[in-house]
Design goal:
Blueprint lengths: L2 H7 L15 H29 L5 H29 L1 E8 L3 E8 L2 E8 H17 L1
Antiparallel strand pairs: 1-2, 2-3
Amino acid sequence: MNSAAAERRKGMPSPSPDRPPIQTTEELETLKRYVLLGIVLRILDHDIRVVGSSKMKLPRLYESILRGLQDHVLLDLAALRRQFRSSGIKIVDERRDADGLTAEYICRGYHHRFFMLWGFVRSEAERLLKNYYSK
């Protein structure tokens, strides 16, 4: 029996140069962006409610600006979900605790997770919102 067959029999994948990687850096960055866009969407929902109930002089103007940003975020989330389906990626769970946000996902049959501290999440969400606003 050759070594590749012996490794498969043990349940270990054989190291093959033509086998796709378990996960690429680009896929991880895309997953983080997806999770962050979910946070941005929650921020926009909150701010739309606050603007709608405030005594501002031009609440409809500000609300329409926020809704426009929200539409762009929703379109990007839908595009990322399509990309995940075609790549075989599925987010299984998102958990928030006092320290940060943990996301568990499956990529090509392998289970992974990543963690982001709240400080990082806040700064990245703000950066994403600024990018959407400047478009």
